[in-house]
Amino acid sequence: MVVRAAVLPAVGSPLEIAEIELPEPGPGQVRVRLAAAGVCHSDLSLSNGTMRVPVPAVLGHEGSGTVVSVGEGVEAYAPGDAVVLNWAPACGSCHACGLGEVWLCANALNGAGAVYARRSDGSDLYPGLNVAAFAEETVVAEKCLLPAPEGVPLDEAALLGCAVLTGYGAVHNSARVRPGESVAVFGVGGVGLAALQSARVAEASTIVAVDVSPEKEDLARAAGATEFVVASETTAKDIRALTGRQGVDVAVECVGRAVTIRTAWESTRRGGRTTVVGIGGKDQQVSFNALEIFHWGRTLSGCVYGDSDPARDLPRIAAHLREGALDLGVLVTERIGLDGIPAAFDNMIAGKGGRALVVF
User: Fold this and answer.
1) Which of 23, 123, 132, 278 lies deepest, with the highest CB count within 10 Å?
2) pLDDT in tens, 224-257
3) Is the domain 167-304 a CATH 3.40.50.720 member?
4) Region(s) of the chain under CATH 3.90.180.10
5) Dihedral (Cα; 48, 51, 57, 59), 10-degree rounding
6) Distance between CA 344 and CA 335 in Å, rounded?
């Protein structure tokens, strides 16, 4: 079948909206008609070469939709089932999986290197981050799917596949925010908005949102921020002023820039915890001296996919959604078509808006 998709022809090249040829699902595969796909900063990182991807590729990894057909041996899903795409399925057999750290699975992205479709000229196409969600339909391995939670609009459920699992996991799994603790979230994009809501769910006391754009204050407060700080050279000092000159207990960095990581660390109290979610380039070098590491006793840790196990965490998130504690609609600042993805990339670069949602 021929479907429309946003194709990355080469790293650093503009996306092309084109028709591609999808095969019928083979053994263990499922064909999905997309309802929606979120435009994530990781897609931008893949397109500009910060993260590697075989090309030409169809990007998009945060999606939801309906099963159209299944291949031989597929038992968990049937045509008509509502699903969320799982771009990082754990293999269950590598060292990380053996430790229960499925978010670090060594084989999670193996599928991204396999040809999954053809361009109109017959050339190969690869699925960016396994699932190729920037298309009307996709074909994925059965393990790249999760059942869509009941009671959640299918288009908004796309956000569960990355932004919400990452933001929620950063707060609850990585930083392990406790009731009454103070939290600062750096970067009010899709993941940052999910982290702000998750800090509220964790019953944090003071929740500080930090962003370069003052226009994001209302968006941040709607997501749960009690305070808003416009990023500047005095950000760490400003945050300490809001917390009795101590600093916050936890900082969640969702930007991936050296200066932001350093500022987030400086914004925490003595003994505080900083979780780095943002994906930065190799040129982003962060420096610390040995004395300050000893004196402040702070913790700085990386966070992959929110340290999430989707099978474990998605039902927990769904329960919060049904209770009204989480609101996916707050994350979405624009609904677009496939041809709106390049402009959504530009908005991310400019620091504008929250999550752009491609609705099919």
Assistant:
1) 132
2) 999 999 999 999 999 999 999 999 999 999 999 9
3) yes
4) 2-161+327-359
5) -90
6) 10
